Amino acid sequence: MQKYSIFSLARNALSHHQHWSRAWRSPAPRPQYDVIIVGGGGHGLATAYYLAKEHNLSNIAVLEKNGLGSGNTGRNTTIVRSNYLWDESALLYEQSLKLWEGLSQELNYNQMFSRRGVLNLGHNLHDMRAIHRRVNANQLNGIDAEVVDAQWIKQFVPILNTDNARYPVLGASWQPRGGVARHDAVAWGLARAADALGVDIIQNCEVTGIRRKDGQVIGVETTQGYIKSKKVAVVVAGHASMLADMAGLRLPIASHPLQALVSEPLKPILHTVVMSNAVHGYISQSDKGELVIGAGIDAYTGYSQRGSFHVIEGNIAAIVELFPLFSRVRMLRQWAGTVDICPDACPIISKTPLKGLYFNCGWGTGGFKATLGSGWTFAHTVAKDEPHPLNAPFNLERFTTGQLIDEHGAAGVAH
Ligand SMILES: Cc1cc2nc3c(=O)[nH]c(=O)nc-3n(C[C@H](O)[C@H](O)[C@H](O)COP(=O)(O)OP(=O)(O)OC[C@H]3O[C@@H](n4cnc5c(N)ncnc54)[C@H](O)[C@@H]3O)c2cc1C
Hints:
Layout: H1 6-14, E1 35-38, H2 42-55, E2 60-63, E3 79-80, H3 87-101, H4 103-107, E4 118-122, H5 125-140, E5 146-149, H6 150-156, E6 171-175, E7 179-180, H7 183-196, E8 200-202, E9 207-213, E10 216-222, E11 225-228, E12 232-234, H8 240-246, E13 254-263, E14 273-276, E15 281-285, E16 291-297, H9 309-322, E17 331-341, E18 348-351, E19 357-361, H10 371-384, H11 398-401
Parallel strand pairs: 1-2, 1-12, 2-8, 4-14, 12-19
Antiparallel strand pairs: 3-7, 4-6, 5-6, 9-10, 10-11, 13-16, 13-17, 14-15, 15-16, 18-19
The chain binds flavin-adenine dinucleotide.
């Protein structure tokens, strides 16, 4: 793998940047792989990377129907944190946060991971009670979390309207190690590193069928032909139900549009991430200067990547209430992704009743932060054919046993 550094930049500048090698190859699919990963988003690429790096497998393909990161990975608002309520999720997200911390160096690819802290605002006594409970639980799990009051917030983010509002800000939970990362760089950095370890990344290759024989998966039909494999790991976010259907399974997943929008670039004005569940909006400022704003899900199910206007209208009203000085900022772009939501707002990282078929989905509105922990535990599950202790609770059986992990409160986005 070509090393990126100030020296390689200078060397390549001398030859007018004509000799950079491609970040990853574009091979034709082989007839057979040890593992096929369906979905070239961050989670699929992280799975491939950790399978190759930690489990010494190299005959792996990632099949992506469009371009890498063209799904939710390239459409999200990039908030990274680990302050979830229940032990099961807090430990999984915390493992992910730890992996984020060294990722740029490990991949030799700048993830622009910026630990600028995340504030989750409380606007009423019930919010504050829930925040105290969650912060206590976080601290017991060794996660950096504290409760801060309105005065602290006013000093830290003076442009935030804490008192003169329909729902005044009473306090917040504060996670200093949280922040944001560059979504495209996550997909591209992981793809480049996986490719260097021998993984075939095949774009514009849609999986259209899953072949099985005697309760075992044997391969996938694709738009580039049939490919054999006794292990197929599906990581397609909002399209998980469709892939499950190809294997004769039903998943407890509902796919909804989730919208986001960015403003025109501004000079640095907001140096942290602010989220509010009660009035409903979350906001940060990108390194380019754009305000990056996220909404709640559109209530209807569907695969549209646009979303309805009334949702962003309400979202912007909330942001303007919190930050009155943004009321005249112009918005540049709006879009949506298709998020995959489980009844308990927690993911599925699991084996399935079909031998050799694995599903990783249900990350809904909050899976970007989990990209690395998800790939790391899923790689273990696929390689060893058994879950890692961190993802064991996120099995498919929980929807029949009732051992749900209800994270609706800490999800940060209303479902
Ligand atoms: C607007 C928005 C804001 C968000 N904000 C945040 C946030 O701030 N923080 C956070 O943690 N999370 C956030 N999320 C959630 C996060 O983006 C996702 O949970 C995460 O990116 C999912 O990654 P993935 O790799 O599983 O899915 P994706 O990136 O969607 O990748 C799945 C891939 O599978 C491919 N695929 C689908 N069907 C097939 C097929 N048949 N054959 C081959 N390939 C197929 C798709 O093309 C896609 O590229 C947000 C999501 C959205 C939409």
